[in-house]
Specification:
By secondary structure, this protein is of the alpha/beta class. The protein is built from 13 helices and 12 strands. The structure holds pyridoxal-5'-phosphate. Pyridoxal-5'-phosphate binds next to helix 3. The site of pyridoxal-5'-phosphate has 15 residues, from helix 3.
Length: 372
C-alpha cells in the first residue's frame, strides 16, 4: 500500500510511542496526586511542556496540552474572544477548517459576536489589504490558518499578524498542517495563539497543544478541577503529552527537507497535470505546503478516483478526512470560486517524509489508468 494521506493523519513515530509507554504502564500516577507516582507524572508532564515550548520559542507556562487541533481551535478562539472583550467582532476566512469556522459560528450564535469573513482568491490566498479593510476598533480576534489542509496554500502570516495588531486585535493561527513541515517561531511572528495537533506529525490521535501568549486571559471551554493552569480541566494525559513532545523533537523541519519533499511534489504535480487537460492544480502553485498536491479533474468524481486508486494500492483523499463521508462539495474549493460539481471532483495527495519518487510514479500511473 502506498499511503499518500499524511494531511489526514500520520503513523505514530516509534520513538514517541516508546517515550509514552512507561506513562501508560508502570508510571500510571495521576499528575495531580500528592504521592511519589503523582510527582513523577507531574514532572514528566512539565518536562514535555518545556520541550514543546522550546520547539516554538515560547515560555513553558504558555503551553496548554489539549486533545488535538479541534480542541485547540475551540479553546484558542472561544477562550480568547470571551476573556478579552475589546468588542464583539471577529475575523476569519471561508477556507478555514471547520474546527475554526464552527468555533466562530458558536461565538456568533450564542454570544452575539459579529463575524467578518475575508474574501479569498482562486488560489485560497487572503491579503493583508483585505484584512485591513475589515478591521475595526472592536475587533477582538483574527483567526487565520498557517496552511490549508485541502489545497496546501500557505497564508502570509508575516504580513497578516502585524496588520491585525495595528488595531490591537489578537491573532490565532491554526498551525495543524504546517507543524510537520516548517519551523514556527512564535516570538518572531508575534503570534498570540496557535494550535497544533499531534496526529499530524507522529504523535497519537487525541494529542495536541495550544500556545497562548502569557499576558492574555483565556476563558476555559472545559470546566472542572482546574488542571493546566485552570485553562483546561481534566486529568492530564501525561503519556500523550510526552509522545507529542518527543514527536516534535523527532520532526525534520529543516529547509533541506522542505526542499527535498517540495521537489518530489513538484515532479508529481507535473506528471499528474500531463495526464489530461481535464486535470488542474488547486491552491497556490508556489506558496504551498511542501507535501500537498491537490487537483480537480473535470467530469470525474473525487470519490470514484479515491476508490479506483485504492483498488490499485494507493491511499489518498477526495477532500479533507474530517469532511469525508458526506459528499457535499468542499467548502474550501467553493469559497475559492469552484462550481459545486467541480469541487466534487477534487483529489488530494499528501506526502510524508518517507514518500519516495517511485511511490509517486505508481500513484500517477494509477490515476492515469483511471482517467487518462
Ligand atoms: N485544523 C486543520 C487545518 C486540520 O487539518 C485538522 C484535521 O484535519 C484540524 C484542525 C483538527 O485537528 P484534530 O484532528 O486534531 O482535531
Amino acid at each position: 500500500m502506498i499511503y499518500l494521506d499524511h494531511a489526514a493523519t500520520t503513523p505514530v513515530n516509534p520513538e514517541a510511542l516508546k517515550a509514552a509507554w512507561p506513562w501508560l504502564t508502570s508510571e500510571y500516577g495521576n499528575a495531580s496526586s500528592h504521592h511519589e507516582l503523582g510527582y513523577r507524572a507531574s514532572a514528566a508532564l512539565e518536562d514535555a511542556r518545556m520541550r514543546v515550548a522550546r520547539k516554538f520559542n515560547c515560555r513553558t507556562s504558555e503551553i496548554t496540552f489539549t486533545s488535538g487541533g479541534t480542541e485547540g481551535a475551540n479553546l484558542g478562539i472561544i477562550g480568547l474572544a470571551l476573556a478579552n472583550p475589546r468588542g464583539k467582532h471577529i475575523v476569519t476566512a471561508p477556507t478555514e477548517h471547520d474546527a475554526v469556522l464552527q468555533s466562530v459560528d458558536y461565538l456568533k450564535r450564542i454570544h452575539g459576536f459579529e463575524v467578518s469573513i475575508l474574501p479569498v482568491d482562486s488560489q485560497g490566498n487572503v491579503t493583508a489589504e483585505a484584512l485591513r479593510s475589515v478591521l475595526r476598533a472592536d475587533t477582538t480576534l483574527v483567526t487565520l490558518m498557517a496552511a490549508n489542509n485541502e489545497v496546501g496554500t500557505l497564508h502570509d502570516l508575516a504580513s497578516l499578524i502585524p496588520t491585525a495588531h495595528e488595531v490591537g486585535a489578537l491573532f490565532h493561527t491554526d498551525a495543524v498542517q504546517v507543524a510537520d513541515w516548517q519551523a514556527v517561531d512564535i516570538a518572531e511572528l508575534g503570534i498570540d495563539a496557535l494550535s497544533i495537533s499531534g496526529h499530524k506529525f507522529g504523535a497519537p490521535k487525541g494529542s495536541g497543544a495550544l500556545f497562548v501568549r502569557g499576558r492574555l486571559a483565556i476563558e476555559p471551554v472545559i470546566h472542572g478541577g482546574g488542571q493546566e493552569f485552570g485553562r483546561r480541566s481534566g486529568t492530564e494525559n501525561v503519556a500523550w503529552a510526552v509522545a507529542l513532545a518527543t514527536a516534535l523533537e523527532q520532526m525534520n523541519v529543516s529547509r533541506e527537507e522542505q526542499e527535498r519533499v517540495a521537489s518530489l511534489r513538484d515532479e508529481f504535480i507535473k506528471s499528474v497535470l500531463a495526464i489530461s487537460p481535464k486535470v488542474s492544480l488547486t491552491g497556490n502553485p508556489k506558496q504551498r505546503l511542501a507535501n500537498i498536491a491537490s487537483f480537480v479533474v473535470e467530469g470525474v468524481s473525487g470519490e470514484s478516483m479515491l476508490l479506483a486508486l485504492e483498488e490499485r494500492g494507493v491511499i489518498c483523499s477526495s477532500g479533507s478526512a474530517c469532511a469525508a463521508g458526506d459528499d457535499k462539495p468542499s467548502h474550501v474549493l467553493t469559497a475559492m470560486g469552484y462550481a459545486p460539481d467541480v469541487a466534487l471532483s477534487a483529489i488530494r495527495f499528501s506526502l510524508g517524509h518517507e514518500t519516495t519518487a517511485e511511490d509517486l510514479q505508481t500513484a500517477c500511473s494509477a490515476l492515469q489508468e483511471f482517467i487518462g
